[in-house]
Amino acid sequence: MTQIKTVTAPYDVAEHLRTAAEMAAYLEASIEEVDGNTTFIAKALCDIARAKGLSQVTKELGLSYEGWNESLSEEHSLTLDTVLKAISALGLKLSIEAVATTSVAAQ
Fold first, then answer.
1. Residue 39 φ/ψ region, left for φ over 0, alpha for ψ in the -120 to 50 degree band, beta for the rest
2. Burial of 98 (0-12, 13-18, 19+ CB in 10 A)
3. Which whole-number Å values give the CA distances from 22 to 28, 29, 53, 67, in the listed order?
4. Cα separations (Å) of 46 from 3, 4, 9, 30, 65?
5. 25, 49, 66, 100: which is deepest, by most CB within 10 A?
6. Which has more pLDDT, 26 or 77?
7. Which residues contact 44 (CB under 8 A, 6 or more apart)?
8. What is the pLDDT of residues 48-97, one digit of tens each?
9. Is there a contact between 79 and 50 (Cβ–Cβ < 8 Å)?
10. Residues 42, 75: contact at Cβ < 8 Å?
11. Cβ(72)–Cβ(45) under 8 Å?
C-alpha cells in the first residue's frame, strides 16, 4: 500500500488582500466577530498592514516597526485612538450604522 504524503503550507491572509475593498471587508468582518477580544482586531490590522507594506504604514503613522508591534501587542490594551490611527494609515475609514432593534423607542 502506498502512503500519500500531504504537504501543507502556512496560510497567510495578507497574501490574499489585494484591493482596498478586500482589506475593508476583512477588517469589517474581524470587527463583527470580535466578541470582546481586541486581539482579533489587532491581528486584522497587522494582516492588512503587511498586505499594504508594513514599512509604508509605519512611516505614515510615524512609528517604528517595534512601535507598531508594541501598540498592537497582546500585552497592551488596544485603544480606540490606536485603531483609528491604524485604520487611517491603512487608507481605510471606519463607519457606523444603526442596527434594527426589536424594541420600540420611547416617544
1. alpha
2. exposed
3. 10, 11, 15, 26
4. 39, 36, 20, 12, 11
5. 49
6. 26
7. 26, 27, 30, 31
8. 999 998 888 888 888 888 888 787 776 667 788 888 888 988 899 988 88
9. no
10. no
11. yes
Amino acid at 70: E
Separation between Cα atoms, residue 26 and residue 66, nearest integer Å:
24
Cell numbers found for residue 21: 475593498
Place of cell 442596527: 99
Total H helices, total E strands in the chain: 5, 0
Instruction: Write the DSSP symbol of residue 76.
Output: S
Give the Cα separation of 107 and 101 in Å (integer). Answer: 15
